[in-house]
Amino acid sequence: MQIYWILVLLFLQVEADVTLSTENSFERSAVRTQCIGKLQLNELIGWVFRFQHCEVTRDEDDERCGAICYPVVKPLLRYAALCQGKDASINDLKDEIRKKDVYIAQLESKLEIAKSMETQASKQMEDLKVQLKVNEMLKQMEHLKQQTDAKIKSSYQQLKDKETELHLKAIKILKIEKDFKDREAEIFDKKDQISKMEMQTQSREVQIQSKDKSIRELEDQANSLKQKLKGISEASSCLPFTNSTKIHTISLPGIDPFVVPCNSSVSGSGWTVIQRRVNGLVDFNRNWIDYKLGFGDLRENFFLGLEKIHQMTLLQPHELYIQLQHVNGSTSYARYDDFKIGSEEEDYKLKSLGKYSGTAGDSLNYHLNMKFSTLDRDNDTSEKNNCAKHHEGGWWFSYCAQSFLNGKYYEDGKSGTSGDYGIIWGSWQKYNYEISLTFSQIMIRPKTLKNLYFLMNK
Ligand SMILES: [Ca+2]
């Protein structure tokens, strides 16, 4: 039996040689060797195991086998050859499968690597996304930081400015405080000074009060003295109005103040004019009341008034000055050093003349102690006549007159031959009563106390 299978194998070897006869010798040899080796190995092993107990001899078998088996084995051989080819294909396929497996394993390995790489990439992507988010956040934070920095910078600058402003204000406040303290110190000093001054003032006030008291006492004494001297000095005549030839107001005890013309241009200062004739504009043929109170224009023709003259001459002794002028321009005067007339109760009697001096002659002494007469009051010594009425003017008529300065005014200086008086001063015109003077002025001046006035005003 074993020999049979060896023949089969040799047959297969022949078939293989025939099949590959068209191939090149080198390659056929290699393939045959390889195929025989494989068949021998595979089939011999199977064959040995399956037929190891075969007891037929080799010669017998060979004969039987040759005759019986060949027709049977021949399709088997062909099938075996076909199977051998299939096995080779299968082996090839297995090899291919192994290669594919290897390739698949490689691919799987690569896939694993790829998956790993994908995982890494995904992780990296996530990391990148995170990084991007972080970068975006960082960028936003940077922007916020810049904005915050800008705000902080602005706020810092504002704070800086505020600090500077506060610093300046603090300096101002310090200066104001210093000024305030200085002022306080000044005020304190001033208060101290004021306190001292108040004390001094109080002391001085005491002194002043004492002096005021003394002054009041002196003033009272002076006022008393002035009151005593008032009527006899400055206000009672023109004497205080030194060198004046104007109209002034004087006052006398018992009557209202009145105005008088003063004259300092004829015979020294301080004369009070009591009568004047310069033209015929004022009628001197007046009644008692007129002569008592006075009349006319103080600037020209006037009579001051018997009551005023009485009060003036009553208060103190007066001197008398009579100024005369002829129509031809010649002048003269008569002066008496103690002129005084009585009260109305005494009919304003010419009570005193004193000592005469002058150039006109003494034509008034004839009228001494005569009462004053007016057209309505006959106080003359003529029993049959009213001299004042007859000669049209008031005067101290006796048996009429040697002087009469209140007579009718004649512009040509002549009263005519009728015997009626004009303005006459007999002793100066040689008792020619046809002559009427064209100017007369009677003035009086205190005499005995005039020096006292000057002493009081020094
Ligand atoms: Ca008479």
UniProtKB/TrEMBL annotation:
Report if keyword Signal is assigned: yes
Leader sequence range is 1-16
Recorded GO CC terms? extracellular space
All residue ranges annotated as the Fibrinogen C-terminal domain in the record: 229-448
Keywords annotated in UniProt: Coiled coil, Disulfide bond, Signal
| Alphabetized CDD domains for the sequence | FReD (cd00087)
Note the coiled coil stretches, chain numbering: 90-124, 208-235
Protein's UniProt name: GL26064
Species name:
Drosophila persimilis (Fruit fly)
